[in-house]
Specification:
Blueprint lengths: L6 E6 L10 H12 L3 E6 L5 H9 L6 E6 L1 H14 L3 E5 L5 H6 L5 H7 L3 E11 L2 E3 L2 E5 H10 L6 H12 L5 E7 L2 E7 L1 E5 L21 E6 L7 H8 L10 E6 L1 E14 L2 E23 H5 L4
Parallel strand pairs: 1-2, 1-3, 3-4
Antiparallel strand pairs: 5-6, 5-14, 7-10, 7-13, 8-9, 8-13, 10-11, 11-12, 13-14
Helix pairs in contact: 1-5, 2-3, 6-7
The chain binds adenosine-5'-triphosphate (ATP).
């Protein structure tokens, strides 16, 4: 993609990940100057602000917007970009960076900013859970429970996330539900129902190794409560080895999913808390979002 003379709006969430470093702005400006792009940097003032900024960008003459933050910020920018029909790029600054890792976007600010100028626009699938946009991985059950607890904490980051997960693991139980996948309904019981567009939550935890963001399919993984001594399950998740061969996993591909649980269960959308529901309507939006991905990553054919 030739970005010579392009006008770019960078939308920065200073509170994403482990905090803001002033050199972030410098790296962004450097990459833009090097590539003759005209750059504007806006900092989000509150949750939800990134949606507004992205939505207004097209009218202000920007060619594309760039989310600088974690999966929550990327989700907000995508909501605005979808409404305005403007392409978006990503500079990952979150704690897990699931979507960015899947898309092959470099994890350092300088390299990610530079990669925007050697990129291709991919028409990426997205989906909604009860009307809320999801780009990466959403979940019902234990991961939703953790996201709802974690969302209320002021001190975030990977260490805090791991601590909370371990503390809550023993008390949280599997739940009963009725699952409808492309119109076929069956009873099931799970600890987590992960609905994946990309392959991973973040930090290379691949809950749906076969997932692609442009296969026009959702990948649902129903996960049983795994005993703590089964460290092989965690090992397999981090090495991309989870499959239907595991007695703890039931993995399916789908165009539409509906779930009814026997009691209210917590859910999350791209890691952001969604509250508790008993009915979940999951709808695919094929090829809906224009995302700048590194051309090199696209050529590998694994996105
Ligand atoms: N200025 C702001 N003040 C408070 N919250 C903000 C502000 N700007 C954005 N937010 C909110 O911060 C939340 C967390 O952002 P984000 O998900 O990008 O970071 P993270 O949680 O650290 O990363 P990840 O989701 O990858 O772990 C989002 O829900 C977003 O709405």
């Amino acid at each position: 993609m030739n970005n010579e003379g392009k006008k770019v709006l960078f939308i920065v969430n200073k509170y994403a990940g482990t905090g803001y470093q002033p050199q972030v702005e410098g790296r962004i400006v450097e990459a833009c100057v090097k590539n003759n792009a005209e750059c504007t940097v806006e900092f989000t003032q509150a949750a939800g602000h990134a949606v507004e900024l992205a939505e207004g960008a097209k009218q202000q003459g920007f060619d594309f917007v760039v989310a600088v933050g974690g999966d929550g910020t990327i989700n907000e920018v995508a909501r605005g970009a979808l409404k305005a029909s403007i392409p978006m790029g990503i500079i990952p600054r979150g704690s897990g960076n699931g979507l960015s890792r899947h898309l092959g976007i470099p994890l350092t600010v300088g390299q990610a900013a530079e990669s925007l100028f050697q990129s291709t626009v991919l028409n990426m699938d997205t989906f909604t859970v009860n009307g809320k946009l999801s780009l990466n991985v959403s979940g019902i059950g234990f991961d939703g429970h953790i996201a709802n607890l974690f969302g209320g904490k002021t001190k975030r980051g990977l260490a805090g996330y791991v601590k909370l997960t371990v503390e809550e693991f023993f008390a949280f139980q599997e739940f009963d539900m009725e699952v409808s996948i492309d119109g076929i309904t069956f009873p099931s019981r799970a600890f987590i129902v992960a609905i994946a567009n990309s392959s991973q939550y973040g930090n290379n935890a691949r809950i749906a190794p076969a997932a692609s963001v442009c296969d026009q399919l959702l990948h649902v993984t129903l996960v049983k409560k795994v005993p703590v001594y089964r460290v092989d399950f965690v090992y397999n998740m981090f090495t991309g080895g989870l499959s239907n061969a595991s007695s703890f996993c039931d993995m399916r591909a789908a165009k539409s999913i509906a779930i009814k649980t026997s009691k209210p269960v917590a859910f999350h959308v791209d890691g952001e808390p969604g509250g508790h529901h008993t009915e979940f309507e999951i709808s695919l939006m094929p090829a809906a979002l224009q995302v700048l991905v590194p051309t090199k990553a696209l050529q590998k054919g694994t996105l």
